[in-house]
Each structure stands twice: as C-alpha cells, then as structure tokens.
Amino acid sequence: MDQIVKTPGVVGGSARIRNTRIPVWVLIEYLSLGWTVEKLLVNYPRLNEEQLAAAKNYYDANKDEIDADIKAQDAVDEE
User: Fold this and answer.
1) In a 3-state reduction of DSSP, which class is residue 73?
2) Which of 2, 26, 30 is CA-nearest to residue 14?
3) Angstrom distance (rounded) from CA 19 to CA 76
4) Quick one: pLDDT at residue 78?
5) What is the dihedral angle through the alpha carbons of 66, 33, 57, 41, rounded to the nearest 10 degrees?
6) Would the CA dihedral through 48, 21, 1, 68 be positive or negative?
7) DSSP of 3-58, one letter per residue?
8) How far is Cα 20 from Cα 79, in angstroms, rounded to an integer?
9) CA neighbor of 15 nearest in space, from 76, 60, 46, 49
10) How many CB atoms lie within 10 A of CB 10?
11) Rounded Cα–Cα distance for residues 76 and 42 (Å)
12) Spatial distance between the Cα atoms of 66 and 55, rounded to a whole number of angstroms
C-alpha cells in the first residue's frame, strides 16, 4: 500500500502521509531546516520511519511539485 496519497479537499490536495493530514512538504521543509528523523518522530508521534522514508522518496521523485508546495506556503506565510 502506498504511504503517500493525494486527496482533493484534504490539505489542499497536496501529497500527504496516508491516514494523516501531514503533507509531505511539511516534513521536507523541516528536514531542510536541519531536523533529524528522530526529532520528526518525537514531534509527529503518529509517524514511523517507513512513512518518513516514503516522504523522502516521494520528494526525490517529485521535487518540482513539493518545492512548489513549499513556495506556495511561504507566500501564504508572508501575507
């Protein structure tokens, strides 16, 4: 079963971890800020290492999509 899903109307249709509302872009953003897998698991206790690996793999295969999601969120944050 795929760990990463996209559902219209859930977290804006962004790629997310299955059965959560945690978008891949959020996890990738934290990793880019220097968070470790351990820190992510502490802060997102519903996640496991397999899901985080799936998020990283999804990002590697879909960088343009996730980078665009991050850029769009940055624009919202600046408003």
Assistant:
1) helix
2) 26
3) 25
4) 75
5) -120
6) negative
7) SEE--TTSGGG--EETTS--BHHHHHHHHHTT--HHHHHHHSTT--HHHHHHHHHH
8) 27
9) 60
10) 13
11) 27
12) 10
- Listed in sequence order, the residues at least 6 apart from 46 whose beta carbon sits closer than 8 Å to its beta carbon are 20, 22
Report the C-alpha gap between 64 and 22 in whole angstroms. Answer: 19
Token representation of residue 23: 């978008």
Q: What is the pLDDT of residue 56?
A: 97
pLDDT, position 79: 75
Q: Write out the two tokens for 50.
A: 């397999």
Residue stretches of the chain with pLDDT short of 50:
none
Torsion of CA 53, 55, 56, 60, to 10 degrees: 130
Residue type (1 letter), 8: P
